[in-house]
Design goal:
The chain is mostly beta strands and 346 residues long. Helix content is 0%, strand content 46%. It has three domains: 110 residues, YVTN repeat-like/Quinoprotein amine dehydrogenase (Methylamine Dehydrogenase, Chain H); 131 residues; 100 residues, Sandwich (Immunoglobulin-like).
Length: 346
Amino acid sequence: MQTLSQDTTFKTTDSGISWFDIHPPDPALTLNNISALNENTIWVVSDVPTFGGVFRTTNGGANWQRQLNLFGQNPNSIYMYNRDIGFISNVTQLYKTTNSGENWTQIPGGPFTDIYFADSLMGWKVNAPSSVIRKTNDGGLNWLNQSMPQGGNVLVSQILRFSNVNKDTIWAVGGTSRSPIRGILYRTTNQGENWSYQLPDINIIIDVYRFVNFIDKNNGWALNDFVNSGIHTKVGGDSTFYTGIIQTSTELPKQFELKQNYPNPFNPRTVIPYKIKSLSNVQLIAYDILGKETQRLVDQFQQAGEYEVDFIGKYEASGVYFYRIEVEDNKSGKIFSETKRMMLLK
């Protein structure tokens, strides 16, 4: 196991109980990132112009070989999937090697701050902060955007880091909820096609998580290093997952419609369906029994279609709530509004 400070590489042979530094490629270099294949074969990168680049050791750091120098565009990130296949990036470009770093070829897709490959073809990467994670099924030749949940109770929809349990299940962090302000943990169980999120049920408030690591489906950690606070789960986190706003159908409805939430009564999550017949500015707001706004669920332009949005009652008091939709038709300018009642029971 190995880790990295700003300009020194450290090594441990006793599971982290003690550490010793090993010779860097050049004492004057700032090292940005590291990828270790085993105790002997290690790659590091430095974005220092002229003297930086990609460096590899095959004897545990006793000697280093510079494999690539891009001068003013030297890389700041590196990931080696195995002894032959790996990726580096600078602030704008992505490169791949298939021969242990001896040669690097620029490929499309842009830079990364976090990356993982489940096999030689299927992988994900993110250039944080971003509202999307990018997936490839052909070893990085083509990349598809996969979006994090947006709208509803999501205040900031972004991903900073992610952790694969396997090729299907991925956890990610970086987002923030709206009511109350809390860090979000994202999860997908279908390779990133659909994402949901949970709000960790903890006493302290952490407004965003910046690192995440899951070793299996139940055991994981998330951390905000700025405030030195984090969380740990042994059961896969909270049992309730939310989706934000999702479009359930692209068929063109004949009219605007606000449907009854389900389940009702509910605790802690309920889903509010609605229909938009044309491009419109949509506001959907939840109020308590006194008429005070509790959650602004939708506040954006939306294309025609059928939608669902979560109402999160986890931090609300038991009782009657109302939700009201107001839609301004982009073509006619007419306003559609409707209000319905729901019950939170704890």
